[in-house]
Write a structure and sequence with these properties.
5-stranded mixed beta sheet, 7 helices, single chain, 2 domains
């Protein structure tokens, strides 16, 4: 049985760790609230981009929409880009690992279909994990996972858009943790490129079928060129939404993980306190027995 000093030192160590986990929980909770506010602020902008894109597609017409490169599927699919959205830090349970595992599984599925994979990742955890597994990264972006800005999403989007337009990528899949609540983050997969013509031209054609409805906006230079400028913005906003939701999900997962760690530390402290009390009682009993034995030896 360990001595009282050993047990007391362990209790002190666990209490110090518990202070750290509680502080990290409080910090994550504060950052989570700000991340939730950023999600709410992003939604009107994202909806405005979608609305402007639909109206531009309506004004351009089906034939012009079909000529937009980002809406054109390549004749054959040889290389698929995988964009993983992860965090810069750990201590958040399985938050980062589930995105990485999903990417590795998807790569295996694509390999069975005879398709090659090009890796893109944001966040130090994703970048380091992909490199550790021996895969070559076609694009990596780090340092902004906690508070992503729109400029960060634009830089990520530029990599995948350039690869798609130059023919190095035939499809781009986005993997990230969508934020539902502090306790729930849902692993989400989206096809980022090519853009779905149904979501752009299809909805626009649906609007055009309404009787007496026509575009009330004059486009300069023309609606097709405006649409070509809006579609990259649509991809950027999709990536920005994924980055913002991933940041909120990370803080929620970290807050939950740190709360669980604090609770576990409390249980360990309780067990160690009982162990120390038993050790103290054993020492007292041993001393009493020694005194009694000494007294008997003198009599």
């Amino acid at each position: 049985m360990a001595s009282q000093r050993d047990v007391r030192n362990r209790i002190s160590s666990v209490k110090n760790i518990q202070k750290i986990t509680r502080a990290m929980e409080m910090v994550a909770a504060a950052r989570l609230r700000r991340a939730e506010q950023r999600i709410q602020a992003l939604r009107p902008y994202a909806e405005a981009i979608r609305r402007m894109t639909r109206k531009a597609a309506l004004a351009a017409g089906p034939a012009e929409v079909a000529r937009v490169p980002l809406l054109q599927e390549h004749q054959s699919t040889a290389t698929v880009g995988l964009l993983l959205i992860t965090g810069d830090r750990g201590l958040a349970g399985g938050f980062n690992s589930q995105v990485i595992r999903a990417g590795v599984r998807l790569r295996a599925e694509l390999a069975e279909e005879g398709l090659q994979t090009a890796w893109f990742a944001t966040g130090r955890r994703g970048v380091s994990s992909i490199a550790f597994r021996g895969y070559e990264l076609s694009g990596s972006h780090t340092g902004f996972a906690d508070r992503p800005a729109y400029a960060d999403a634009r830089a990520v989007a530029a990599d995948v858009i350039e690869g798609y337009l130059e023919g190095r990528l035939d499809r781009v899949e986005l993997l990230y943790n969508a934020y539902v609540s502090p306790l729930t983050q849902v692993l989400t997969r989206e096809t980022l490129l090519p853009l779905s013509r149904a979501s752009v031209a299809g909805e626009a054609e649906g609007e055009e079928q309404e009787p007496g409805k026509r575009a009330l906006v004059d486009y300069e230079p023309d609606a097709e060129r405006i649409l070509q400028q809006l579609l990259p913005a649509s991809i950027e906003i999709s990536i920005h939404r994924a980055l913002v939701e991933s940041a909120a999900g990370f803080f929620g997962a970290q807050m939950t993980a740190m709360r669980s760690a604090s609770d576990n530390a409390g249980e360990i402290i309780t067990d160690l306190t009982l162990q120390m009390n038993r050790a103290r009682q054993a020492e007292i009993t041993q001393e009493i027995m020694e005194v009694v034995a000494g007294a008997e030896g003198l009599s």
